[in-house]
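Before the break, one more example. Copy the sequence into your notebook; we will annotate it together after we see the structure.
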Amino acid sequence: MDFRNFRTFVIAAEELHFGRTAERLGIAQPAVTQQMKVLETQLGFKVFQRVRRGIELTSAGAVFLDYARQALAQAETAVLAGRRASRGELGKLCIAYANSVALEPELPALLRRFAQARPDVELELRGIPVQAQMTALADERIDVAFLRSPPGALPTSIRITPFSRTPLDVVLAHDHRCAKRRRMALRDIGDDRLIVVDDPPGVGVGHRVQELCLEAGFVAKNVLRTTDSLGVVSFAAAGLGVGVVPRTLARFQVEGAVFKPLDMANGYSEVVIATRAYDRSAGTRALLDMVAARQ
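Here is what the structure looks like once it is written out:
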């Protein structure tokens, strides 16, 4: 049913005169008469009856008027909601993150700005491993993934956007032989057991640390793997080995753990954003625009 006829009917019910209705709408009076005939045919009942000075509502027309006004209001609301959604102001955005990334101040700060700018967008946040992130992204179960570089081999359907960099620290027990040093080089701990995050080959901070060891001229022969960077800190504090973690972990006071800046020009961990290359949704676009604006 044509909402244009609903709008004409409501105005006609207010004016109770087809001529004045035509003037308000800026159309010819015969067009108003024709629209009302079409509406009555579609409805199957009369909404107006003619009187000496114009028209008046029938009893059925009076009842229909309330519902017509509601329908027009809902239609207007639907249009406005659609326009807001197209601008990324409504809808839902599902974001996944590697657990250590949530500790970086840049991510909460970005989400806070996004939530303030888009208060009607529902945010869903999931802390899941990197490989699960990529699968969920490809299956469209999430929209955005924050992970530590390198992201590993990715299909062309995944787009990577740089987000932040964090210096790496060496973490060791308070009674380690190097605990009193101001800075640490990887070669200083080349003979120690290396505690790393058990990331898949070529992925994440676990791979990044071993990559830096190769650049420092050695391969870690004794490796202890754990599920996340907090585990690296805890086990290093217990004297089970040494680890290399993002500096943000130093904010967490783990008893017995000592953090030393890594003395290496490229001793940093990079956080990147993964999205679907073909994703043109307004919410994803708005988030990436915020990231680009802060660069």
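The chain has three domains: 3-86, 91-163+271-294, 165-269. The chain has nine helices and eleven strands. Try to locate both features in your own notes.
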